[in-house]
Write a structure and sequence with these properties.
By secondary structure, the chain is an alpha/beta fold. It has 2 domains: 86-321, ABC transporter transmembrane region fold (Up-down Bundle); 342-575, P-loop containing nucleotide triphosphate hydrolases (Rossmann fold). The chain is 63% helix and 11% strand. It contains 21 helices and 14 strands. It has a 6-stranded mixed beta sheet, with helices on both faces. The longest helix is centred in the middle third of the chain and has 52 residues, at 217-268. The radius of gyration is 36 Å and the shape is elongated. The model has no long low-confidence stretch (mean pLDDT 80).
Length: 579
C-alpha cells in the first residue's frame, strides 16, 4: 500500500511548485482560521455581565474577525486551486503513461485481455485515482496543519487540558487503522469486478446484432446479474468497513470534547488547583479548538474509503505499467533493399506452450511472387502473417526479408515494407480523406481520390453528404463493404513494396470484388504478395498456393498442378462449388 502511494506521488514530483504553494496557502489559511477562536473568546470576555459590555472593544474584535475570515477563505480557495492543479496534472501524466504503455506491450498482452478490461484501467481506474488524490491532498494538508495549529493554541491557553486531548488522540488512529486494513482487500476485489463488468458490458453492447440473432439476451442478463450481484456484495462489504471509520472516530472525538468541557468548566468555576484558572471566554476558545482539533480526524477518516479505492485502482494501473515491453530496436538496421525476398527457416511457434501450432515451417518466396495461403480454420494461415510482421516473435528458427533476419532490423522498418488489409475493418472518427490517408498523412487530395477510384470507392464516397470531407466512424452507418473499400484504398495510396491481403474482400459483393481483384493484380505487379483467402476462386492466378494444415505445408504448387494431384486442395476447391 505504501509502495503504491509512493509510486503515485512520484508522478507529482515534477509539479513540486504546486505542492509548495499548497502547503504555503494551507498554513496561511488554516492559521488565520485558527486565530478566530481566540478573538471569539475575547469577545465573550467583553460581555462581563448585565449592562456591562465593552462595545468599543467588541466592535474592533468583530471587525478583525470579519477580515480574518475573509482572508482565511481566500487562502483556502487558493490552496484548493493548487491542489486541483497538482492532482489533475499528476493523473494526466499517469493516464498518458498507461496509454503509451499499451502501445509498447507485446501484442499477446492485448490479445490476452478484453478491450473492456483495458478500457476500464485507462479510464475508470484513472478517474478513481484522480478523485482519491484530490480529496487526499486537500484533507491531508489542511488537516495536519489544523491539528498542529490547534495543539499550539490549546497549549497557550491551558497545558493540562491540552495534555488530556493529546493523550486521548491515539484512540482515533488505532480505530481508523484497524478498519482501513479490513477495507483494503474488499476494495481490491471491487476494482477487479468493476473491470469484469465493464468488459462484459462493452462486449454485449458492441455485438448487439449477434446477441439478438442468437437470442442471447437472457443469458447475457444472467451473466451480468451474477457479476453485478457479486460486485454489490463486495461493494457493500467495502462500504461497511469504510463507513465504520467516521462514526468510530466521531465517538472518540466526542469523548475528547466532553473531557475538555468538563475539565474547563471546573477551571471556570474556581477549581484552579486541578487544571488552572480559566475564564469563560478562554473556555469558549478551548472548546472551539477542541472541536477544530478533532474535525480533521473525522474528515481524513471520511476520505479513507476514497483513498482505499484509489490505491486499489492504482495497483491495477501499475500492473499494466509493470508489464514487459517489446524490446527496443531503435539501434538496429533498417531495410534499404526492398526487393521482397522472404524466407522462413525451420520456424517453430506456439501461442501457448501446451498447444503446438507452427512446427519446422520452411518457405522461400522470390521477389514479385504472389503467394496464396489456404487451409482450414485454425491451421496457422494468419499466424504466418503475425510472425512475418513480428506481431509475435518466433520460438526458434529464422525469418528473412530482403536477405535480412527480421530480428536484426527495426519493427517500423519491417512493417513499413508491407501494406496489409485485414478481414476486420477499422475506421476511426475522422473524415473519409483522413481515413484513407492514415498511412500517408501528407498525401494530397488528388492522390487520395485516385486511390479511391482505383478500388471503386469513389462512387459511394461522392454520394456522402460532404464527400471526402464527411466525418465517419465505426457507427456512422457505412456498410461493412464500404468500410472495407476505404481500408483497401489506404493500401492503394501507400503503394508499398510488399502486400498482405488477409481475407481483404470477404465483406464485398462478388461484382465489386471482381473489379477490385483487377486493381489488386495491377498493384501486385512486381511486388511480393501474400494472400489469405477462403474463397478459393480469388487465388487461382497465384504463382504458388500453399495448403496448410496443423501449422505445416501439406501441399504446394500452382492451381492447375494442385487440381491435377486431386489432393486436399482439390477437395477443398471442389467443395466450394458442390451443389
Amino acid at each position: 500500500m505504501l509502495k503504491t502511494l509512493k509510486r503515485v506521488f512520484s508522478y507529482a514530483r515534477p509539479y513540486i511548485l504546486y505542492f509548495v504553494m499548497t502547503v504555503l496557502f494551507a498554513i496561511i489559511g488554516v492559521s488565520l482560521s485558527l486565530a478566530v477562536p481566540v478573538f471569539i473568546g475575547e469577545a465573550v470576555d467583553c460581555c462581563i455581565g448585565k449592562n456591562d459590555v465593552d462595545f468599543d472593544r467588541l466592535k474592533k474584535i468583530v471587525t478583525t474577525l470579519a477580515g480574518m475570515v475573509i482572508c482565511s477563505t481566500l487562502f483556502q480557495w487558493l490552496m484548493s486551486l493548487c491542489t486541483n492543479k497538482l492532482s489533475f496534472l499528476t493523473v494526466r501524466d499517469l493516464r498518458a503513461d498507461i496509454f503509451n504503455k499499451l502501445e509498447r506491450v507485446p501484442l499477446k498482452y492485448i490479445d490476452g485481455h478484453t478491450k473492456g478490461e483495458l478500457t476500464s484501467r485507462v479510464i475508470n481506474d484513472i478517474e478513481i485515482i484522480s478523485d482519491g488524490l484530490l480529496q487526499g491532498f486537500t484533507q491531508f494538508f489542511s488537516g495536519i496543519i489544523t491539528i498542529l495549529g490547534t495543539l499550539i493554541f490549546m497549549m497557550t491557553i491551558n497545558v493540562r487540558i491540552a495534555f488530556v486531548v493529546v493523550l486521548l488522540t491515539p484512540l482515533s488512529f488505532i480505530a481508523a487503522s484497524k478498519i482501513t486494513k479490513a477495507s483494503h482487500d474488499s476494495y481490491m476485489k471491487q476494482s477487479k469486478l468493476r473491470g469484469d463488468m465493464v468488459a462484459l458490458a462493452e462486449e454485449m453492447a458492441g455485438n448487439q446484432k449477434l446477441v439478438k440473432a442468437f437470442v442471447y439476451d437472457e443469458r447475457a442478463e444472467k451473466r451480468f446479474a451474477e457479476i453485478n450481484k457479486e460486485y454489490g456484495k463486495i461493494g457493500t462489504q467495502a462500504t461497511f468497513f469504510s463507513s465504520m471509520t467516521n462514526p468510530t472516530t466521531r465517538f472518540v472525538n466526542g469523548l475528547i470534547y466532553a473531557a475538555v468541557g468538563l475539565l474547563g468548566s471546573l477551571g471556570a468555576i474556581g477549581y484552579s488547583s486541578i487544571i488552572g484558572v480559566m475564564s469563560v471566554g478562554k473556555l469558549s476558545s478551548f472548546l472551539a479548538y477542541a472541536n477544530q482539533y478533532t474535525k480533521p480526524f473525522n474528515e481524513i477518516s471520511g476520505v479513507f474509503a476514497e483513498l482505499q479505492n484509489a490505491i486499489a485502482s492504482a495497483q491495477r494501473v501499475f500492473d499494466v505499467l509493470d508489464e514487459e515491453e517489446v524490446s527496443d530496436d531503435s539501434e538496429k538496421a533498417v531495410i534499404s533493399d526492398r526487393r521482397g525476398d522472404v524466407s522462413f527457416r525451420d520456424v517453430f511457434f506456439s501461442y501457448t506452450p501446451e498447444v503446438k501450432l507452427i512446427q519446422n515451417f520452411s518457405l522461400d518466396v522470390k521477389s514479385g511472387q504472389r503467394i496464396a495461403i489456404v487451409g482450414p480454420t485454425g491451421c496457422g494461415k494468419s499466424t504466418i502473417i503475425n510472425l512475418l510482421l513480428r506481431f509475435y516473435d518466433i520460438d526458434s528458427g529464422s525469418i528473412e526479408v530482403s536477405g535480412k533476419n527480421i530480428s536484426d532490423i527495426t519493427r517500423d522498418s519491417l512493417r513499413s515494407s508491407f501494406g496489409m488489409v485485414l478481414q476486420d475493418t477499422w475506421i476511426f472518427t475522422g473524415t473519409v480523406a483522413e481515413n484513407i490517408a492514415y498511412g500517408l498523412p501528407d498525401a494530397s487530395k488528388e492522390q487520395i481520390i485516385e486511390a479511391a477510384k482505383a478500388v471503386y470507392a469513389h462512387g459511394f464516397i461522392k454520394r456522402l453528404p460532404q464527400g471526402y470531407d464527411t466525418v465517419i466512424s465505426e457507427d456512422s452507418g457505412l456498410s461493412q463493404g464500404q468500410k472495407q473499400l476505404i481500408c483497401i484504398a489506404r493500401i492503394m495510396l501507400m503503394d508499398p513494396p510488399m502486400l498482405i491481403l488477409d481475407e481483404a474482400t470477404s465483406s464485398i459483393d462478388l461484382r465489386t470484388e471482381h473489379k477490385i481483384q483487377k486493381a489488386f493484380i495491377k498493384l501486385m505487379e512486381g511486388r511480393t504478395s501474400f494472400v489469405i483467402a477462403h474463397r478459393l476462386s480469388t487465388i487461382k492466378n497465384s504463382d504458388t498456393i500453399l495448403v496448410m494444415d496443423n501449422g505445416n505445408i501439406i501441399e504446394q504448387g500452382s492451381h492447375e498442378k494442385l487440381m491435377k494431384e486431386n489432393g486436399f486442395y482439390s477437395k477443398l476447391y471442389n467443395s466450394q462449388f458442390a451443389s
